[in-house]
């Protein structure tokens, strides 16, 4: 399934927009993108695990 990958991409985009809207520098944008990508990727991973476990 593709939920963790979607979470990574969406989290990176969301984190970048959030840091840019608050006036962050390039390093701030990169850090927030990475943090949100990790968080959303983990949420996607746990969603995938839950879906796979509930189907079997």
UniProtKB/TrEMBL annotation:
Protein keywords: Membrane, Transmembrane, Transmembrane helix
Keyword Transmembrane helix tagged: yes
Membrane-traversing stretches: 29-51
Domain of life: Bacteria
Protein name, entry field: PEP-CTERM protein-sorting domain-containing protein
């Amino acid at each position: 399934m593709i939920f963790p990958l979607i979470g990574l991409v969406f989290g990176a985009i969301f984190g970048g927009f959030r840091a840019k809207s608050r006036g962050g520098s390039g390093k701030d944008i990169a850090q927030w993108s990475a943090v949100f990508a990790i968080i959303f990727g983990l949420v996607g991973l746990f969603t995938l695990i839950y879906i796979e476990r509930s189907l079997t």
